[in-house]
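Why do we bother with a discrete structure alphabet at all? Because it lets us treat a fold like text: something you can write down, compare, and reason about line by line. To make this less abstract, here is a complete entry for Cuticle protein. Read it the way you would read a sentence in a foreign language you are learning: slowly, and without expecting to understand everything at once.
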Amino acid sequence: MIARVTVILCALALASAGVVQLGHGYAGESYGHEAVAYAPVAHYGGHEDTHVDYHAHPKYDYSYSVSDPHTGDHKTQHEVRDGDVVKGEYSLLQPDGSFRKVTYTADDHNGFNAVVHNTAPAHHEYH
């Protein structure tokens, strides 16, 4: 999961900086059980005077969610970046029925910090 999130975040950071453009669909699009981040190289149509600012201020607001009752796949993610400050959270329904929510922040001063909250599996009483 962390590797998938890292790939998606890297693709978004590169797109935010103007290094790549996101392809058709959107980063984090889910096919089956794999998240796919599209980040093809930007095409400039032969213009040699096109300037790409590799030092632009990175800023984005990203969200996605999946709710599939057929497979039981339920998850969400939201992240905001403004410069070197990143804040976000993701949640998912785990296979045992428990719910996990992770809230995280990252910046140059404090590094990466995450708080994980788990709730017990929901049990239904039958009468």
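What the structure line is telling us, in plain words: Strands lie at 29-31, 34-36, 59-68, 73-82, 85-93, 99-107, 111-119. The first helix runs from residue 2 to 16.
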